[in-house]
Design brief:
The chain is mainly alpha-helical. It has 32 helices and nine strands. Strand 3 and strand 4 form a beta hairpin. It starts with a helix and ends in a 17-residue tail after the last helix.
């Protein structure tokens, strides 16, 4: 391959720069943009520009910029590995590497060729990369010294150039050391000696540059062969970087020093110095930074066996007051659908009695999604959970620990917050209509066997306190009684709630956290188990209301969260129970309900709107827009078209019966089965499972379509066999899934099957 002079000139252009690869990359980019695609010169510019865009992250070289960049399905840039480049690119790198006079550009090209294991002797690329990195480092350090000597008081740009040149020199030596150490090259000893000497020189630089030193010491500490030479350098670095604003560097060098010392006495002495440095960092900090510094100091003291030091940290930390934490509240506005609270109150107006109204609240859960996709580009930050009563950090969550799952958990909390507003409005409407007292409520609440009357008096008082505005009392009364009801329901279902003694551990009655894990065994319909865990649980992404309130960990909770707890208490009593009869005695103090729209309360000859639909649409006419895009595909069998028409109407009428949305999807699956039987000549009475498999084998179904149909089949089977109650979904979600089903049926009907190579007999069982 011939080297193009213009391209080689661009590669050599960065020789006098403090950042050679970056400057070379700019020159190559300009050449790439100013040459004709397809020309040899243009292709050389492209290949070499790509080489300058590679970066090393977590031990792997990858490039996201340059002419060879790639994107994923979301349009986000994806790092491209060295070995993914084409052979022509490698040949271009190999042609220019020995020709360039730019030491660091030459080192980069040989380094990448070694990563690709290019050529018959890749080790030669490694040897050349090591040699070039060392030469480039010496060149940059010389340039930095010349800058300093030329300017007694260098201006800001010149000082920046000096620091940048030194930083890139250190990076070059680190690369050289990494390559030599990995392959046990004999020059590794010389490189270590150069790095140690440079480290001592760094300590003499003014102003101090600890970041440069940490870049060198970290890889050197990894090998025991370097410990003796490192000992003096790390001791000196820890002593030099000990002033205000440098405590964290002192800690870092001391922790590295602890790894290289030989005796226990030396190690204990270093541990005590680390403790003092961490306490110095805490003393120089305020608010949350001080708390986190003390947490690190406590962790170090505990792990190092420094008992007195640990007690010192505890005493200091417990003196931090809430007013010192300087925490701000971040609120995210949520717009409620028009008429949302009015619709919730209207459902109570339609109830014939207080008992009917409370039973309706008890059996109407929040709408909870079971899947969520993290929006593209959404930033997820590391999270620290703090109990300010200590104060103490109770949990930390890394930014990538849950990814989309964490976003789903946050959606659950938001859904329950919004639902709590509706329950709050409904409970207030119960108060306004029926004006009940605790004496009126107690007989009603104590109806089921698991709701003991002596305990339900306290729950009745909780409702009364809620209506009086005393949410602290309401929660203090409701939460323990809620737990008691759940425990009694588990015992009645013969589900274990006790733990026997084992070893030194005594037997005990299980507490709320363990009881919540048994909700699925109890058979509560979805989404109630998810609702209870989210509101009462203590795991990541849960509200933890029970612990926060009963352990006095928070100020007074909001009223709508209190309403959620009261609804859950009602659900624990009445889920699975028959609707209650009127329990109020004739001589009760329950007053006559206040006037309301009498027409709403009549038993009308047409369906009453399902209150849950008002969370998403305001009137039945809005449902026409929801299903407007659901057009029955033309040409399909009439029986399938009829079923799809029925599915569309079921979704439209989910305004009156929310569960119709799920039935609509099941009907769409029936239509798909009809189409498959029509397309597969020997379908006979084969089950759907076999039809899907044959459709895939004959080219009627793609892998994506096959997976979608199997998921639908499994859901249908679980519902048909009583393994799962009907799930519910918002109208727009149902419309989206039906749109997919309609399109899938149209695609399958238009597909041309591939005749089977052999004729066999398919057998299957089940649905």
């Amino acid at each position: 391959m011939d080297v193009q002079p213009a391209v080689l000139s661009a590669v050599n252009s960065g020789a006098d720069s403090c950042e050679p690869p970056r400057k070379v990359g700019w020159a190559l980019r300009a050449g790439y943009l100013n040459t004709t695609p397809g020309d040899e010169e243009h292709e050389h510019f492209a290949a070499l520009w790509a080489a300058m865009e590679f970066r090393l992250q977590d031990g792997t070289w990858g490039a996201v910029l340059g002419p060879f960049r790639t994107t994923d399905d979301n349009g986000d840039l994806v790092p491209r590995a060295v070995r993914d480049m084409t052979p022509a690119v490698f040949d271009t790198w190999a042609a220019y590497a020995p020709e360039t006079t730019n030491a660091l550009a030459r080192a980069r090209l040989h380094h990448l060729l070694w990563e690709a294991r290019h050529g018959t002797r890749p080790i030669e690329h490694l040897r050349s990369a090591v040699h070039s990195y060392r030469a480039g480092a010496r060149m940059l350090l010389t340039r930095a010294e010349e800058h300093e000597e030329a300017l007694a008081n260098p201006p800001e740009p010149a000082a920046f150039e000096v620091g940048l040149a030194r930083l890139r020199a250190v990076d070059a030596l680190v690369f050289a050391h990494g390559l030599a150490a990995t392959t046990r090259r004999p020059e590794c000893t010389d490189i270590v000696r150069e790095m140690i000497a440079l480290g001592h020189a760094v300590l003499d630089w003014t102003p101090p540059v600890p970041d440069v030193l940490t870049r060198m010491t970290a890889p050197l500490v990894a090998s025991k062969d370097n410990w003796s030479a490192l000992h003096a350098l790390l001791e000196r670095a820890a002593d030099e970087y000990c002033g205000e604003g440098l405590f964290h560097y002192r800690v870092e060098f001391l922790e590295e020093l602890r790894r290289v010392v030989r005796t226990d006495d030396e190690r204990r002495d270093v541990n005590e110095k680390i403790h003092r440095a961490r306490m110095g960092l805490a003393d120089s900090s305020t608010g949350l930074r001080k708390l986190l510094a003390l947490e690190d100091a406590a962790r170090h003291a505990r792990d190092s066996g420094l008992t007195d030091a640990l007690n010192e940290v505890r005493r200091t930390q417990q003196k931090i007051g809430r007013d010192e934490m300087t925490m701000d509240t971040i609120r995210t506005p949520v717009s409620l659908p028009p008429g949302y609270l009015e619709a919730a109150s209207a459902a109570i107006d339609a109830a014939g009695s207080m008992e009917d109204a409370l039973h309706f609240i008890a059996t109407t859960p929040a709408t909870m999604s079971d899947s969520a996709t993290l929006p593209s580009g959404l930033l997820s930050l590391p999270t620290v959970y703090i109990n300010p009563n200590g104060p103490v950090v109770t949990r930390t969550v890394e930014s990538n620990s849950t990814r989309g799952d964490g976003f789903l958990l946050r959606q659950h909390v938001v859904a329950l917050e919004v639902h709590g507003l509706a329950v709050e409005a409904q409970l207030d409407r119960v108060r306004d209509r029926f004006r009940p007292t605790a004496e009126d409520l107690a007989p009603f609440l104590a109806g089921p066997q698991h709701a003991v009357e002596t305990r339900m008096r306290g729950l009745a008082r909780a409702f009364e306190a809620f209506w009086e505005g005393d949410v602290d009392t309401a929660l203090a009364l409701a939460l323990p009684r809620l737990e008691g009801i759940l425990r009694r329901r588990l015992k009645a279902a013969d589900i274990g709630v006790i733990t026997y003694a084992k070893g030194e551990a005594i037997g005990q009655v299980q507490q709320l956290g363990s009881l919540l894990d048994k909700l699925d065994e109890l058979g509560f319909p979805e989404p109630w188990p998810l609702v209870l865990r989210t509101v009462l649980g203590n795991a990541e992404g849960q509200m933890n209301l029970r612990n926060d309130v009963l352990h006095d960990l928070v100020d007074t909770p909001s009223r709508h969260r209190t309403a959620l707890v009261l609804q859950i208490a009602l659900a624990m009593i009445f889920l699975g129970e028959e609707p209650p009869a009127r329990t109020t005695p004739a001589g009760s103090s329950l007053r006559t309900p206040l006037p309301w729209n009498a027409a709403v309360d009549q038993h009308l000859p047409f369906p009453v709107p399902d209150p849950r639909a008002h969370h998403f649409v305001t009137q039945y006419a809005d449902m026409h827009d929801v299903v407007a895009g659901l057009t029955v595909p033309s040409g399909i069998p009439q029986s399938a078209a009829t079923v799809l028409h029925t599915a569309r109407e079921l979704l439209r009428h989910s305004y009156f019966c929310y569960e119709f949305s799920t039935v609509a999807l099941l009907h769409a699956l029936i239509a798909m089965e009809i189409v498959l039987r029509a397309k597969i000549p020997d379908s006979g009475t084969k089950p759907l499972n076999t039809l899907i498999r044959q459709g895939n084998e004959r080219g009627l179904l793609t892998e994506r379509q096959t997976e979608f149909l199997h998921d639908g089949r499994k859901l249908r089977n679980r519902i048909a066999h009583g393994q799962r109650a009907h799930s519910v979904m918002p109208p727009h979600w149902g419309a989206g899934m039906l749109t997919t089903s309609f399109a899938l049926i149209s695609e399958v009907w238009a597909a041309q099957p591939t005749p089977p190579a052999t004729t066999g007999t398919d057998e299957g069982t089940g649905i």
